[in-house]
Write a structure and sequence with these properties.
The protein is built from 5 helices and no strands. By secondary structure, it is an all-alpha fold. The protein has a domain at 3-159: Helix Hairpins (Orthogonal Bundle). Helix 2 (25-80) packs antiparallel against helix 3. The protein is rod-shaped. This is PspA/IM30 family protein. It comes from Brasilonema bromeliae SPC951.
Length: 257
């Protein structure tokens, strides 16, 4: 392959690509229908001209037929009048119109066939234009839907989905953290309440133990006997008696425990 052929092919490919990119489907459909409408107008004009030519040929043919009939009658009249020369001239004129009539008849048949063909083509073109208009509306709707879908896809691609999902995950983690804190606070509150009740129970034991210690520490006292007020002037007794009395009191308290 020569260099110029390669360059020609590259240029043609680039031009075709540019043309393809420049083609707007909706505008191309409008242009196609407009061109078909122009063809329809031209075809109607052609059919009208063909019909007019057919009518002229048909009139000429009918006139030729009338002339043939007229010269036929003239030839018969000349023979009736015994003018054979005049009858011959009449027949010659008849032959001329007969030849013309035959030619007109062939042309008329041809024109009639042409007009019928043009009429069928006109009907077909009108049907194709109607079909093209229907398809154009359908394709226009599809083009609109395709453009909308393309725009939607572009919007979806433009969205930062990963960032949005990460934000959702962060919010979910915060909610879980807050729920864990709330649950921990509830558990701590329950534990503190149990400790308070335990403190109440232990305080009763401590109070009882303190009372018992107080009873034991009083000389001559008993658990059921209240403490007597201290005398301002102690009685004069023997020291050994006081000790013995205190020991006896302590034994009684131990026995009662």
């Amino acid at each position: 392959m020569g260099l110029f052929d390669r360059i020609k092919r590259v240029v043609s490919a680039n031009l075709n690509d540019l043309v393809s990119k420049a083609e707007d489907p909706e505008k191309m459909l409008e242009q196609a229908v407009a061109e078909m409408q122009e063809d329809l107008v031209q075809l109607k004009q052609g059919v009208a001209q063909a019909i007019a030519a057919q009518k002229r040929t048909e009139k000429q043919y009918n006139d030729a037929q009338n002339e043939i009939n007229k010269w036929q009658r003239n030839a018969q009249l000349a023979l009736q009048k015994a003018d054979e020369n005049l009858a011959r001239q009449a027949l010659e004129r008849k032959k001329t119109f007969t030849d013309t009539s035959n030619a007109l008849k062939a042309s008329l048949d041809q024109q009639t066939t042409q007009v019928e063909t043009l009429k069928r083509n006109l009907i077909q073109l009108e049907s194709k234009i109607s079909e093209a208009k229907t398809k154009k509306e359908m394709l226009r709707a599809r083009i609109t839907a395709a453009k909308a879908q393309e725009q939607l896809q572009g919007m979806v691609r433009g969205m930062n989905t990963s960032s949005a999902m990460a934000a959702f995950e962060r919010m979910e983690e915060k909610v879980l953290t807050q729920e864990a804190r709330a649950q921990s606070a509830a558990e701590l509150a329950g534990a503190d309440l149990e400790n308070q009740f335990a403190a109440l129970e232990s305080s009763d034991v401590d109070d009882e133990l303190a009372a018992l210690k107080a009873q034991i520490s009083i000389p001559g006292g008993s658990p059921n006997q209240p403490q007597l007020p201290q005398q301002t002037t102690p009685p004069k007794t023997n020291k050994n008696e006081v000790v013995d009395a205190e020991l006896d009191s302590l034994r009684k308290q131990l026995d009662q425990m």
